[in-house]
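Deliverable D2.4 — example input (structure tokens):
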């Protein structure tokens, strides 16, 4: 859990800088476009680390944990993705924050949680800790989506969805490549980065 949560440590300064910047540019004519561009940059920044952690999960777990926990590599990627989604939240709630509609945040979190709890429970029954980690990751993804959709009622931010999807696909392709094809070839994995 702590290895995947390193994304939170890396991403927290981004959020600390984001909020004052968001308010600073809020009166500019192209503020919505700047928010969209910044969201893409924040997403890219976070997913570089997610890709690294996912690609080198076996090596990282082997170096950082006791032999009894070597199977924990399976939870590293979903925890890293979930942490990235958690850090990513302020980028998707600009409209709500600027329009002072922040009282809705708990409800926008509760809806994915209510739907996600049985899914997470089911996944944990079938896949154990790895299933539970993926379930939590899905809940946080639901929070991002519900928040972005509702926030766009107050300020339409033209998120660069195609770029974001391409980044996710590239990230997963690199992870699959390094974990499945070049799994035992550390030098090749390093060269891919």
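Example output (designed residues):
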């Amino acid at each position: 859990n702590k290895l995947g949560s390193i994304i939170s440590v890396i991403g927290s300064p981004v959020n600390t800088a984001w909020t004052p910047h968001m308010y600073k540019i809020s009166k500019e004519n192209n503020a919505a476009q700047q928010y969209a561009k910044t969201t893409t940059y924040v997403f890219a920044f976070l997913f570089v680390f997610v890709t690294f952690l996912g690609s080198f999960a076996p090596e990282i777990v082997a170096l950082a944990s006791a032999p009894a926990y070597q199977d924990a590599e399976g939870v590293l990627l979903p925890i890293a993705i979930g942490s990235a989604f958690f850090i990513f939240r302020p980028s998707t709630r600009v409209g709500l924050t600027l329009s002072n509609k922040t009282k809705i945040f708990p409800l926008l979190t509760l809806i994915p949680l209510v739907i996600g709890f049985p899914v997470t429970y089911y996944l944990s029954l079938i896949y154990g800790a790895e299933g539970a980690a993926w379930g939590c990751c899905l809940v946080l993804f639901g929070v991002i989506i519900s928040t972005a959709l509702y926030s766009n009622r107050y300020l339409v931010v033209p998120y660069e969805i195609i770029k974001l999807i391409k980044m996710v696909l590239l990230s997963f392709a690199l992870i699959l490549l390094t974990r499945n094809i070049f799994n035992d070839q550390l030098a090749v994995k390093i060269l891919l980065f």
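DSSP finds nine helices and no strands in the chain.
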